[in-house]
Write a structure and sequence with these properties.
The structure holds two protein chains of two kinds.
Chain A (H helix, E strand, L loop, with lengths): L4 H17 L3 E2 H11 L11 H10 L3 E6 L7 E6 L1 H24 L14
Antiparallel strand pairs in A: 1-3, 2-3
Chain B lengths: L1 H15 L6 H20 L4 H12 L2 H11 L1 H4 L8 H8 L2 H22 L7 H5 L1 H16 L8 H16 L7 H22 L7 H36 L6 H26 L1 H5 L1 H27 L8 H24 L8 H31 L3 H28 L5 H24 L1 H4 L4
The chains are: A mainly alpha, B mainly alpha.
Chain lengths: 119, 447
């Protein structure tokens, strides 16, 4: 299934924020988590993640920090801030509203299983 | 494995050349690439295959460049446009058009000088209208350059026309204060009119406003540079012409105003097409002058606090000096923000800048107290009203600037709050300048 480009773009911010809400992470790991969460259905062009992360930093939603573990490679880790959590909550409300409306329109609550706390 | 390293190095140098990607981004992207290659290796792919797939997944360099450019417009400022080299060359190659508009401004000034009977006669209207003779050409050039539709020419044209009517129809008393004030504030108002075509009419865009602030700063630098060069040229020409019996002053009298008019457009063209030159200069200038001004302001604040501001020692010129000082501090702040890489954490420059702003605020509080006492004694005049108004406008801006930059330096706020505050405040400056031109003269009986 090919997911529409606009939809991918719109979901990118909440998805990244949600992943960072699980704990600080770096670009490659975030992308791996996106693939995992979407069973490989959400395909991002890898490079595009970084401008997005930089934007979230400019908005104050995440703070980047370079870590170089003793073994392994130097990476820029991103951690979510309180502002970021607040923004994530806002996104969540919007997506739930949209999902609920779509679910109702398509009849039956099974059409879209997107409950708070669920996937 | 060696060939893989070579390929990665080559890829890195390609990415490093993208206009909006800086060194740390390259490192971040490279780490990503290596992670991806390692994973693909682990899945059983050969090194070269893994490299190809990892690069492919990273996305095309064009797309990457565009995305980075969209986020880091400030970096792009160094590089002109996000477009390709060909587009860049075409944009820079349109110098003939810039020259045409510069010549238009110069000729208009020439005609005005001839009509006025310059240099024997130097009527007041000449000075009042000086900006009106030149800036429409700058606005027109931007409108052409941005390829604005004809409908978008109307608002700036109407603004210029309205300003021309006001400044020439108002019955100013000869040598009155209101006339001088209106003449001094009109260029500011008109500069904001130029912002309209500069921003292609999208006046609300924060990014475009920031671009205009940058443009203003760079333009000022170029203008000063051209003026310095022009000064040297004029002095040498004078020295050469002297033995021939030609009066160098007579030549300079004509060349200087025309050159000054033309240089307005030429400086703008230089800013638009030769970013890279100034790009290296702006941060250096801020770095040199911000600490010096901070030192001077702190010294002044301390000495004034000790000696006090006597009612007599404190005259109108001093208010003017303080207003100018605050404008410079604000300019440094704006310049500092615009030349700064927004994603960097606060450093010592931000602290020095904060110190400069705080000292300026302190000084201004003292000036305001003294001025309030003076107005209480002697009542309002046009000059005092203008000085006080400008002071309040600057004070409000600097007070919030100080608060936001304290939050930023202490790690509780973000630089973009400060940026947004400054760009949101720009219309206030325009409104105030317009008030001095439009409302102050009638309010004080055109005296």
């Amino acid at each position: 299934m090919q997911i529409d480009k606009d939809l991918v773009a719109a979901s990118a911010t909440p998805l990244v924020l949600a992943i960072l809400a699980e704990g600080e992470s770096y670009g490659y790991a975030i992308l791996r988590r996106v693939r995992e969460l979407s069973d490989g259905e959400l395909e991002w062009t890898d490079g595009m993640l970084y401008p997005l992360l930089h934007r979230l930093h400019r908005l104050g939603y995440v703070t980047p920090e370079w870590h170089s573990p003793p073994e392994g490679r130097r990476r820029r880790y991103y951690a979510i801030t309180d502002d970021g959590r607040a923004a994530l909550a806002g996104h969540k409300r919007q997506w739930l509203t949209v999902a609920r409306a779509l679910g109702d329109a398509w009849g039956g609550s099974d059409a879209l299983r997107l409950a708070p706390g669920g996937a | 494995m060696e060939s893989l390293e070579l390929e990665i190095a080559e890829w890195r140098s390609f990415v490093g050349r993208l206009p909006a990607v800086d060194g740390r981004d390259v490192e971040e992207l490279e780490a990503h690439l290596r992670d991806q290659i390692a994973d693909l290796n682990a899945a059983g792919l050969a090194a070269d295959e893994a490299f190809l797939i990892a690069v492919k997944r990273m996305g095309s360099l064009d797309g990457l460049s565009r995305e980075f450019a969209r986020e880091h417009t400030g970096r792009l400022w160094r590089q002109l446009f996000a477009g390709d080299d060909q587009q860049r060359a075409a944009a820079a190659g349109r110098w003939a058009e810039a020259l045409l508009f510069a010549a238009g401004a110069a000729v208009t000034v020439l005609v005005a000088l001839l009509v006025a009977g310059f240099p024997a006669e130097q009527p007041d209207w000449l000075y009042r209208n000086a900006a009106l003779l030149v800036l429409p050409f700058l606005a027109g050039w931007f409108a052409r350059r941005r390829e604005l539709p004809w409908r978008a020419w109307l608002p700036p044209a109407a603004a210029f026309l309205g300003a021309a009517v006001v400044i020439n129809v108002y019955p100013f008393e000869p040598d009155g204060a209101t006339e001088a004030l209106a003449a001094a504030h009109l260029p500011v108002v008109l500069w904001f009119v130029v912002a309209y075509p500069y921003m292609s009419g999208s006046l609300r865009s924060h990014e475009r406003r920031m671009d205009f602030v940058r443009f203003t700063g760079e333009w000022a630098i170029y203008y000063v540079l051209i003026a310095l060069g022009g000064g040297v040229l004029a002095a040498l020409t004078g020295a050469i012409l002297e033995p021939t019996g030609v009066d160098p002053d007579a030549v300079a009298n004509w060349v200087l105003p025309l050159g000054a008019a033309g240089a307005v457009v030429v400086a703008a063209w230089l800013v638009e097409s030769k970013q890279r030159v100034v790009e290296n200069m702006a941060p250096v200038l801020t770095m040199i002058f911000t600490p010096l001004f901070a030192l001077m302001l702190a010294g002044a604040a301390v000495s004034y606090a000790v000696t006090g501001l006597g009612g007599d020692a404190f005259d109108r010129e001093l208010v003017g000096v303080f207003d100018a000082l605050m404008v410079v501090v604000l300019g440094l702040v704006l310049y500092g923000i615009s030349a700064r890489e927004p994603s960097q954490p606060p450093d010592w420059m931000d602290r020095i800048q904060l110190a400069a702003v705080a000292s300026a605020l302190l000084l201004n509080a003292m000036v305001l107290t003294a001025m309030a006492a003076r107005i209480g004694d002697l009542g309002f005049t046009a000059n005092r009203a203008a000085a006080l108004g400008l002071n309040l406008v600057l004070l409000a801006n600097l007070a919030v600037t100080a608060r936001l930059s304290t939050r930023f330096v202490t790690g509780r706020g973000h630089l973009h709050d400060l940026e947004h505050w400054q760009t949101a405040y720009l219309p206030i400056f325009a409104l105030w300048a317009a008030t001095v031109v439009l409302i102050l003269p009638p309010a004080f009986g055109f005296a």
